[in-house]
Amino acid sequence: MPIITLTTDLGLKDYYVASLKGHILSQLPDASIIDISHDIPPFNISVAAFCLKNCYQDFPEGTIHIIGVSPEANEHVCHLIIKHNQHYFIGADNGMFSLLFDEKPSEVFNLNIISDNDRRTFPTKDVFVQAACHIGRGGTMELIGSRIDGLTERTNFQPVIEEDVIRGMSMYIDSYGNVTTNITKSLFKLIGKGRDFAIVFRRSDYNIYELKLNYSEVPEGEKLALFSTNNHLEIAINKGNANKLFGLKLSDTIRVEFKSSSTPKDGPDLF
Q1: Which helix (H) or strand (E) holds 126?
Q2: Domains and CATH numbers, the chain
């Protein structure tokens, strides 16, 4: 049974996702279709890459991942099928794949599928689904594409180090309102060296001065910071919504300010 995942910015208000699934099942009736997310902010390839990167390896080898975010092809953007870590990825070469993979994939093919729809306004359905079903039936990438080298490169905003300060940004907000930053545990440890710190954003009374291991370490409604399962610094409220309460949005600045001289704290090992 082929497994096909869907990551799109189509939302669930309209019929588009149902149309995608119907088109898959009409070609592969035994396919298992898994929704990763259809709530990617419109055209936001960074969030799409972040979501898929954090879960695709939980799926069995051979899983086919369709990414329908900013999927249109033009003279500068082609459609690709990629095999990486024994998974297949289908989408537009708009920079998303360079954000998704930590290393260069070994097998990259430019799709040469001709859409049945001359308007080509829905390539996720008209091109990507055809490619996915071809692979799901046991077909090879060579039959539907031509091998190429390299991907369109794009980089996410990286944290800036300024003496005793890490200046990062919010990069993902989940459905609970938890705000994930681009500040990693390893960077925090490298710069912090166990020193006292303040996590600073928007207003001084929002500052957070310690890390927790999980949400329940603070009373309900209290703010906290922790390192989530993807090892990124996260700002949250226990059973609350940090996004709404603090007014945090994607790309907002988050700073970690370390004291220039302080004795490393004893306490639970957060690293």
Answers
A1: none
A2: 3-147 (3.40.50.10790), 160-258 (2.40.30.90)
Contact 2, 136 (CB under 8 A): yes
Which of 89, 161, 170, 190 lies closest to 132 in space, CA to CA? 89
105 Cβ partners below 8 Å, 6+ apart?
Answer: 82, 83, 84, 97, 151
CB-based contact 65:7 (threshold 8 Å): yes
Tokens found for residue 249: 């949005």
pTM of the model: 0.87
Longest CA pairwise span in the chain (Å): 67
Q: Mean pLDDT, 10 residues at a time, over the chain (271 residues)?
A: 96 96 97 97 95 96 97 91 97 95 93 72 93 97 94 89 94 96 96 95 92 96 95 96 94 94 56 54
